[in-house]
Specification:
Blueprint lengths: L1 H11 L5 H16 L5 H28 L13 H4 L4 H26 L1 H16 L13 H22 L4 H6 L1 H17 L1 H7 L4 H5 L1 H21 L17 H10 L7 H26 L1
Helix pairs in contact: 2-3, 2-7, 2-14, 3-5, 3-6, 3-7, 5-6, 6-7, 7-9, 9-12, 9-14, 13-14
């Protein structure tokens, strides 16, 4: 039983799950500032986001193995399907369970938020499958970065706010940009690490299309763009100086933005973890600043 649990933990990649926390925290903070925070819908949004993240991770593992994208030369964490640690049937069952669970959460949230949330839920589940599966895998055609930004930024924050307040504000929309940028930066490190093996396998990520040097510039733009947006929000009515709380993480941002240009290969796994930490810490401080301000 312990071995089975360990394999599933390897498959779901728990270190990536904090990426689902930040956007929900920011959306809930915006709702709190607008006087509409509600704990049960907020928790439901968080559970749904985590299930979607797990579903995406399992789908990537399964579909990349089916397409022959993963190989023994892979530099990232072990993929359970490609390595034979778990069967494709097991991983496929995990996808069904997690995305089915996310669908049930979205049904509940749809009862609260109406048909817009039902559409968001359906689109999120389809995007989770279409990221690396289906006839036109988004990740294999340079669209992964865009869809991660949309669904982990605009959609996650905006939907969380909408469910709790019943409307969508300009503050919530702008506040959705920093977590979306930073979570996209996590993907960029992943794609930078795999740029050579992906190119060999025919997986045309944006990193493969634009090359290593431009991918490094993209990463730095995503990281520092988050701080720029936080500063711009000072000019919005009802947003005070606490929104600058994420500046506490600036030394971490400086460190990762420097290291991305000097490390390569498996050393990028550590940078990926540091970027995920930066994303979480920034988003939590940003959420606190929005709620307080």
């Amino acid at each position: 039983m312990r071995q089975e649990i360990s394999l599933w933990m390897l498959a779901i990649r728990p270190k990536t799950l904090p990426a689902a926390v930040g956007p929900i925290a920011v959306g809930s903070a915006c709702a709190s500032a607008a006087g509409g925070f509600s704990i049960v819908p907020a928790v439901a949004c968080l559970v749904g986001a985590v299930l979607l993240q797990i579903g995406v991770n399992l789908a990537n593992d399964y579909f990349d193995a089916q397409r022959g994208i993963d190989s023994d030369e892979r530099l990232g964490p072990t993929r359970v399907t490609q390595s034979g640690l778990m069967s494709g049937t097991q991983v496929r069952s995990g996808i069904i369970v997690t995305l089915g669970g996310a669908g049930l959460i979205f049904i509940y949230l749809g009862l609260l938020g109406g048909w817009p949330i039902v559409l968001v839920g359906a689109a999120s589940v389809l995007a989770a499958l279409g990221y690396s599966g289906g006839p036109y895998p988004l990740a294999s055609h340079g669209l992964g970065d865009l869809f991660v930004f949309i669904f982990f930024g605009l959609v996650a924050v905006g939907a969380t706010f909408y469910i709790q307040t019943g409307y969508l504000s300009s503050v919530a929309l702008i506040a959705s940009i920093p977590p979306g940028l930073l979570i996209t930066a996590i993907l960029v490190v992943n794609n930078l690490r795999d740029i050579d093996t992906d190119a060999t396998a025919g997986k045309r990520t944006l990193a493969v299309l634009i090359g290593r040097r431009r991918t490094i510039l993209q990463y730095r733009a995503l990281v520092w763009g988050s701080y720029l947006v936080a500063g711009v929000m000072l000019f919005f009515e009802g947003v005070g100086w606490p929104v600058l709380a994420p500046l506490v993480t600036a030394p971490m941002a400086w460190s990762v933005s420097q290291r991305v240009g000097v490390v390569s290969g498996r050393d990028l796994n550590e940078l990926l973890a540091k970027t995920a930490q930066l994303s979480l810490f920034f988003s939590l401080l940003f959420a606190a600043g929005l709620a307080w301000g």
